[in-house]
Amino acid sequence: MNRKTRRNIKDTFAKEYGGFCGWNTLEDTLDNVSENQIRDVFVGIFITGCRAMELPTLKRRQVDLHSSDTHIWIRSMYVEKQKERINLVHKNGKPMFDKTGKRMFKFNSIEGMRTFPIRRDNPFAPIFIEYVEKFSSEDILYPYSYGQIYYRVAQIGMKLPKGVPRTQWAYYKGPWWPHRIRAERACQILQNMNWNLPRLMTWFGWASSKMAELYGKLHPEALIDNRVVEWR
To answer: Which phi and psi (to 5°) does residue 140 adopt?
Structure first.
């Protein structure tokens, strides 16, 4: 497989992994990470469920560690621009078409914010808390670019053959990429917490139910009533 192939949720995560990998797999993964920056980014994406473009916007003052004995609160975290399709029309109101006969449109970007809780009994919560407490109020917790975040995650499990230069890393990426971590979090919530899809949408800040429905199909355990949370 060409490791430079674009990986996504529907065609890669759903088919190759099929849902939450389990806490033991996550912990084994982190145990085999030698660099703290890689571990911190992994935990940051997972516990917040954010996109790689959103992680560098999070400041220390947005993480409330003291208002609840049971939860950590993330306040007003930026949600990456969501795209709304707008069909283009002429001045007379008639639809516009391109030379191939396809309807012309543009995307209107909408910015959002999300405030959400993280349970303190989440196995990654102590790691996240310890990391956050190192920073001052206005500090950015993850001062990296999207490319730097992606590269850190892609290094997990990456094996470069002998003699292959580091510049060719994209062909030998490990099994993790930022959006897979986010997908694991969504599936973990459905498996462990027994949430319905509207609640999942609110937690992630999704305007559409499309992704929630996809993750819901991966975990029929969410159909069981009154389940006790099982972290293992």
So the answer is: -80, 130
Nearest to 188 by CA among 210, 218, 208: 218
Give the CATH number of domain 9-78+115-223: 1.10.443.10
Mean per-residue pLDDT pooled into runs of 10, the chain (232 residues): 70 91 95 93 98 96 96 95 76 88 76 93 97 97 96 92 88 94 95 89 91 88 66 58
Residues paired with 140 in a beta bridge? 59
pTM: 0.83
Q: What are the φ/ψ torsions at residue 200 (nearest 5 degrees)?
A: -65, -40
One DSSP character per residue, 34-45 reads --HHHHHHHHHH
Q: Give the whole-angstrom CA distance, residue 111 versus residue 115.
A: 14
Determine the longest span between alpha carbons in the chain, in angstroms.
65
Phi, psi values for residue 146, rounded to 5°: -60, -45
Q: What is the CA radius of gyration of the chain?
A: 20
Sheet architecture: strand order including 105-119: 63-64, 71-87, 105-119
